[in-house]
Structure formats: C-alpha cells, structure tokens
Amino acid sequence: MYLVEAIEDSREMGGNMRLFVAIEFPEEILCELEGIQNKMRALAGYGRFVTKSNLHLTLQFLGEVSRQEFGPIVSALHRVAKIQPAFSIRLSRVGSFGKSSPFRVIWAGVDGDIPRLTRLQKDIVTALGKVGFLQETRPYQPHITLGRDVELSGKESLGNFSRILASASFPVKQFVLKESKIENGKLVYHSLHFFRLVISESSIL
Ligand code: 2AM
C-alpha cells in the first residue's frame, strides 16, 4: 500500500494509525529465521509464531498516531537518516523473554556493528521525542520476535537453536516506518516510508 492510500485509509478509520520504526531483512535472512521457527514449531507443544513477512527488528514503537502527527514523524526520521551511516549486523543467538516454558517471547538477537545500531535507535528516539513521542524507559534490547507463548519441553534448550544459526553479516542500508493493522483477522504490517542511511567510504558493509 502506498503512503497516500494509507493516510486516506486511516482517515476513514477515524484518523489513527498504529506505527513503529523497524529494520527489515534480506530474503536469505528471513528464510534462515523461518527455518529456525519451523524446527521450533516441530518441537513445540504450543506457540504463536510470527509469519515470515512480519519478521523485523523494531527500533521504536510509536503506538496510535494521528494524521496530523504523521508529517512531523516522517520529517524527523528523514533528519536522522540523512546523518546516520549504513552498517552491518548478523544474527547472533536465540533467546527468550521469560525464563521457562512456555516462553513469553522467543527471539533472535543480533551482533555485529551494535554501536551503530544503538546510535541509530537512540537518535530516532531523540528525534521522535522532539515531536512529542515519549521515550521507552526500559533499556533497548534489539531482538527479532520469532514466537510468543512458546511451549518447549526442557530438552530442547534455546542454545540448540542458537547453534544452527549461520552467522553471515548483512548490510542495513535503510530503516522503515511501518503500520500495524488487523486485516481479515490477520496481523499485517505495511511499509509506509523507507529512510535510506548514508553510504560513504567509512561505512563498513
Ligand atoms: P515485540 O516483537 O517485542 O512484541 C510491532 O508491534 C512491533 O513493535 C513489535 O516488534 C513489537 O515488539 C514492538 N513493540 C514495542 N513495544 C510495543 C508495545 N507496547 N505494543 C506493541 N508492540 C510493541
């Protein structure tokens, strides 16, 4: 869906959109994450797994946003992208929020150029803070949610899934403003706007 359609659509829905800022992954990384999910699904008694097209790394969750706030958000994100360099990350390990089964959230973590990822996230939070969005008080924990409420018997430790992650680096050349919607009973994320990062000789990709 294009930006104008999304805004017009939101006007019909009463004006609010549920937005977040995220990093998306190349197809081979999505396939790798899906492979892990499939192995986990085969072993799990229960779990709500994120569909491949919805896998992402959140930089900031904005929640409900009015039409009037949309323009300032896009401008603020452009200002950040204009001065932030592209960088590389890779999948690191599989972990969880919640210590035991059923795990509240099972995620894939990232490593690589974490200082640049953290800088980008902080700058986005600061820029959006200036246009009225409160900062999350919890420290930022970059993660890709793979599944929620996942029931795994004790034998399949999360470490086993970490060991099957191949750790090829991939470049992060842009971030995206996304809208979260329920359509026909399904959670879908639409990309509304892409923000290209600076690619210079100093970008280590
Ligand atoms: P999660 O994957 O850890 O649930 C879209 O909902 C994205 O925004 C998800 O990646 C989600 O993170 C993140 N997010 C952060 N805070 C949220 C909140 N309060 N409600 C819903 N999603 C949130």
Fraction of residues in β-strands: 35-45%
- CATH fold assignment: Cyclic Phosphodiesterase, Chain: A
Describe the biggest sheet?
5 strands, antiparallel
* Low confidence ranges: none
Report the principal-axis shape.
globular
Give me the number of helical elements.
5
Q: What's the count of strands?
A: 9
Q: CATH first level: which class?
A: Alpha Beta
Query: Alpha-carbon distance between the termini?
Result: 30 Å
* Radius of gyration (Å): 18 Å
How many distinct domains? 1
| Percent helix range | 25-40%
**Which small-molecule species are bound to the chains here?**
adenosine-2'-monophosphate
Largest sheet strand order: 2-6-5-4-7
- From N to C, what is the helix and strand string? HEHEEHEEHEHEEE
Summed over residues and divided by their number, the pLDDT gives a mean of: 91
The CATH superfamily bears the name Cyclic phosphodiesterase
Structural class: alpha+beta
Function: Hydrolyzes RNA 2',3'-cyclic phosphodiester to an RNA 2'-phosphomonoester.
Enzyme class: hydrolase
Family: Belongs to the 2H phosphoesterase superfamily. ThpR family.
EC number: 3.1.4.58
